[in-house]
Amino acid sequence: MKPNEESALKIAEFLLQIKAIKLEPNKPFTWASGWKSPIYCDNRVTLSYPKVRTYIRQEFVNNILETFGKPDVIAGVATGGIAQGALIAQELGLPFIYVRSEAKKHGMTNMIEGVVEKGQSVVVIEDLISTGGSSLKAVEALREAGCEVKGMAAIFTYGFKTAHDNFKKAKCKVITLSNYDTLITQALETEYITEKDLKSLKEWRENPAEWGNLLKV
């Protein structure tokens, strides 16, 4: 499902304004994977800006209700989805849980924190979708616990084909409030980037693993 165009552009504008997303095609960032990237995203920054935080929360709520209906439980993915998920659950008057990246090594060795029952419907919240790997680990944990995962909602996605394929294979519907294409459109319109930057940014999205090597040619 494509995000609402107007609100997607607004969120892209917010993310650039508060520097939750930084675009620097000429001074690329290095991701943990080793990839060179012209974009760096940290959506946790949105929590420090009440106006932005509230707008994102309401867009989450509206999109969740429209796409999935009201679930029994909201689940956040650690760590970026925890605060977002709690805000959404509070607004909807629903229970909240969160899913760790891996089970605890001590105590109850939980991967899911909070109370959820078998058969309950869950919408999973993420702040960012890259390849979808860590996000889908949370979906798998909830399904193994007997939950009905209605789908996932995230603030932003890079729109990698890998992520699309991973969610399709997992049979998990995913919606995002904004995305990479919308972001670079907004960035060009507000002169945050140039036409030359736009070309480089599009090339990165098509082949992120090799983009850094092409810069050296």
Structural description of this entry:
- By secondary structure, the chain is of the alpha/beta class.
- Helix content is 44%, strand content 21%.
- The chain starts with a helix and ends with a helix.
- The strands form three sheets. Strands 7-6-5-8-9-10 form a six-stranded mixed β-sheet, with helices on both faces. It has a two-stranded antiparallel sheet with strand order 1-4.
- The chain is globular.
- Strand 2 and strand 3 form a beta hairpin.
- The protein has helices at residues 5-17, 50-67, 80-92, 133-144, 161-169, 180-189, 195-206, 208-215; strands spanning 21-23, 29-30, 36-37, 39-41, 73-77, 96-99, 112-113, 121-129, 148-157, 174-179.
- The longest helix is centred in the first third of the chain and has 18 residues, at 50-67.
Task: Please supply descriptive tags for the structure shown above.
217 residues; Rossmann fold; six-stranded mixed beta sheet; 10 strands; single chain; 44% helix
Largest sheet: 6 strands, mixed
CATH class designation: Alpha Beta
What do we call the CATH topology?
Rossmann fold
Q: Assess the beta-strand content as a share of residues.
A: 15-25%
Runs in which pLDDT lies below 50 for 5 or more consecutive residues are none
| Order of adjacent strands in the largest pleated sheet | 7-6-5-8-9-10
Helix content: 40-55%
CA gyration radius, whole angstroms:
18 Å
